[in-house]
Amino acid sequence: MYNLLIEILKVGGIAALALVIVFFLLKDSVLTATPRKFTHASGYFEKVGNFWYEFPGNIPFVESGRGGIYLHLIDHGRVKDGDPAHPFTLRMPLPGGMSQWSFPNPWEWRDLYIVKPENR
Questions:
Q1: What percent of the chain shows pLDDT beyond 70?
Q2: In this structure, which of 38, 54, 75, 86 has its CB flanked by the most CB atoms within 10 Å?
Q3: pLDDT-above-90 percentage for the chain
Q4: What's the average model confidence in pLDDT over 38-63?
Q5: pTM over 0.90
Q6: Do 4 and 56 fall into the same domain?
Q7: Where in the sequence is the domain holding 93, given as residue range(s)?
Q8: DSSP line for 4-59
Q9: Could you tell me if 27 and 41 lie in one domain?
């Protein structure tokens, strides 16, 4: 790796080296930026302020984080067996593809919609 950085410095100068270093430091956020909207065949999910909403229906979700290529959204209004510690959870694939839902403990992911990310 060190030799590669020296070669980049020789060929492209300090600006090229700085660009490569910045890319490697930020690559995860650059390559997998979180979309603000996911569309599917019968509607969409959109981030509005601090919440995500499913339309139609205007169903609110809280973003609980990211795991790998997935954005995790929680609907605290739907819980497993009446237990608020087990909320309905969606995972949205950041690059697009099959979204899935589950309740925790244990996680049993079920296919939901094929989603397409959009940035607005």
A1: 76
A2: 38
A3: 53
A4: 94
A5: no
A6: no
A7: 37-118
A8: HHHHHHHHHHHHHHHHHHHHHHHHHHHHTPPPSEEEETTEEEEEETTEEEEETTTE
A9: no
